[in-house]
Amino acid sequence: MATQYDLIVIGAGPAGLMAAKTAAEQSLKVVLIERRKDITKWTRADCMMFYGLEGGFLGEDLKVEIGKVIFPRNGFEVKYSGGLYPLYHWRVMSPGGHRIDFSGDNPIATVFDKEILLRDLLGEVEKSGVTLFSGTPGIKAENTKEGAKVLIKSEGKESWLEAKKVIAADGVNSRITESVGLNKERPPMGTFKVVQYIMEGVENPYPNSWVQIYGQSISPFAPPHFLQTVHGESLHKLGAIRPAPGNPEEDLKTVMEKSCLSSWFKKAKVVYKMGVSVKPKMPIEKPIMGNILAIGDAAAFVEVENQGALMCGYHAGHAILKEIEGKDGITEYIDWWQKSFEFNNPDIQRIAQGYAINPYYEDEEIDYLFSLVEGESFEGTINQYKIPKMLWDAIFRHKERIQRERPELSQKIEGIHSMTTQEAFTIDQEK
Predict the structure, then answer these.
(1) pTM for the whole thing?
(2) If we measure between CA atoms, which residue out of 4, 336, 334, 5 comes closest to residue 182?
(3) CA atoms within 13 A of residue 393's CA, in its CB half-sphere
(4) Which residue intervals of the chain bear CATH 3.30.9.10?
(5) Which of 106, 170, 405, 410 is deepest in the core (most CB within 10 A)?
(6) pLDDT, tens digit, for every residue of 237-294?
(7) CATH among 3.20.20.190, 3.40.50.920, 3.40.50.300, 3.30.9.10 for 89-104+190-278
(8) Is the sign of the CA dihedral 367, 369, 373, 379 positive or negative?
(9) What is the rounded distance in angstroms from the CA atom of residue 211 to the CA atom of residue 402?
């Protein structure tokens, strides 16, 4: 079979759309494959935020303006014609209501409308001449002598597409990375369910805030999250995650009915629900197998965030162009990948420590630890890799007091902080 395309992109989320757009604008012949029929319809659980507006997140100083998202360090911008809702605070709360605030004078994140982002990207993809197959899953990929090929399924029939290069942007549960062997060195962490309620009528005392509430009585795994949607105070989002076969909706009901936040939800009504099931793995250090490059969530530790996905697509599109021109674009992409995402850093264990609060500490212990630092000033950020370190560093400033007042708790903390990310996720599922 003759090579039909320069590039096949599998997956039309932000990473795949951006990769297809970037490559096609450089005159490459590109085909984009997406299993969803309506590419702009987004139903999976997603907080839909651009993070790190304080600067330095994912190696970027992101700027979000009316009509566009600007990536000054990476040298590109993306059209976005939808609304925005700024967040100035990340507030974490203990079961008893002790609150720790990470606040900024300027927005540290902004909520956006993902369907509009996808619509804007899709419009530019279509203008650039990309061939699009929607309602068409990519089943597997293989390297060939001339490049690579992808098995697709459309209207019940399977067929192969061939190209010089392939980009797998099919998400955290990627079929393509599995089919080409890129997951062989990625320890499995199980399956996790995420559910989000989109609600009206919430009486929220903390506008412009991302809120998380900790405690085993709230959730046995991770703290549920609460924030405004792009519609602001008129529509809120409450979400939870649990290892399968657990039901995250049990945690959402606990927050709404029994937690220290329950008064917020007395008049609340669930308008609709969003969900997703994910099988997280450790990141792929070098996400390349022959002529097949994995990008975005397909190569990540869970996710790269929406802005990270756009950056992956942009750099991958340029890397493929260089490869086709006979240059070494992949080495350049991998170098950027390894430097830009915190989960590629060994300090990722700090994330395990953040997650490990709920499964391993009793409610009373969490109340005690949070009370030690409540009222202290913390840098405004919604960086999931930075917050655990900041929180625990603050708690450890009271180490002597903890050792004196709660010696057993002090020993527990030391034991939990020696865990790896994989151990934390695995043990959590067994509890």
Answers:
(1) 0.94
(2) 334
(3) 9
(4) 89-104+190-278
(5) 170
(6) 999 999 999 999 999 999 999 999 999 999 999 999 999 999 999 999 999 999 999 9
(7) 3.30.9.10
(8) negative
(9) 26
